[in-house]
Amino acid sequence: MIPYGKQSIDQSDIDAVVETLKSPFLTQGPKVKEFEEKLAAYGGAKYAVAVSNGTAALHVAYLAAGIKAGDEVITSPNTFVATSNMLLIIGAKPVFCDIRPDTCNIDETKIEKLITKKTKAIVPVHFAGNPCGMDKIKSIAKKHKLLVIEDACHALGASFKDKKIGSVSDMSVFSFHPVKSITTGEGGAILTDNKKFYEKMLTLRSHGIHKDKKGLVVMTHMGWNYRLTDIQAALGVSQLKKLDGFIDARRQVVKWYKEAFKGFDEIILPKETTGSESAWHVYVIRVKNKKDRFPLANFLKEKGIGINFHYPAVYGQPYYRKNGYARTKLKEADLYTATLITLPLFGALSREDVKYIADCIKEYFSKK
Asked: Any residues with CB less than 8 A from the CB of 42 and at least 6 apart, and which?
């Protein structure tokens, strides 16, 4: 079976973890700080806060931004549910904006009409690692005095007009799940230039406590245990050294896909945002006839190809339907949901693997 995604772990990663296992600190030690500093430097930000996973990163970012019950936040329906779930957790209302048919990111031209007096922030999602149209989004946010918190969980290593994702907005949220650009097993982080946000997130990730000038533990906020361990951070430091190579390998796989499907018009291939470079977290094709989606997916699975579906529109999930979104319909997001299939994409995928996947897709359509 060719999996749809896979981590890349080598001996240097294993050695880094073993070294930390032998050290005095397994958690709350120096490796976390080292990982944060190197991550911030890579992303072009002043500060980084490492946490236990990408969902926790979203949660503390929203709280640090001051988003509260009753606030509205405009975001994309084409995302993992955590993006909007963490807004619901704090009592805010996700307002879903339709997506662009070309990049499948939030349609920046449709954001402004959704802004109300209750709108607090815009949360663009760099779907599949492909940056959103951030110039327009930032312009809208500035005009209406809104925060921009990027869900960049797919996008570590991506660039928007020569600026690394992580240095573009008020905050950028990352994930280090095994199928992401780098992995810490589970893990996440927030990058920001805002010292106030940074200091609050440090407190929120550790029970809302800090040590005062006398060395006493003081709780100033309601917080959680969202800490990353030194074991995970050691893996992260090692993986970060190879990040650019990982991204280059993913981009090579994408080139092979483009070559393999040249002149084949039964499917729609993913497209990068003009002037930007995607991190290529996933490779999502679209069938032109929605009736082909599940038959093709099943055919590929029978051929030993691991496929997935990134993502059904969040507002279409049963929980959301039962909790205020029963009538939500967005033209492009609904069409995308009905036609998408995620193909394998990871650095170790070979040219022969890509050819086999493409040949199987062509075989399916030749038999129709």
From this structure: 164, 166, 240, 243
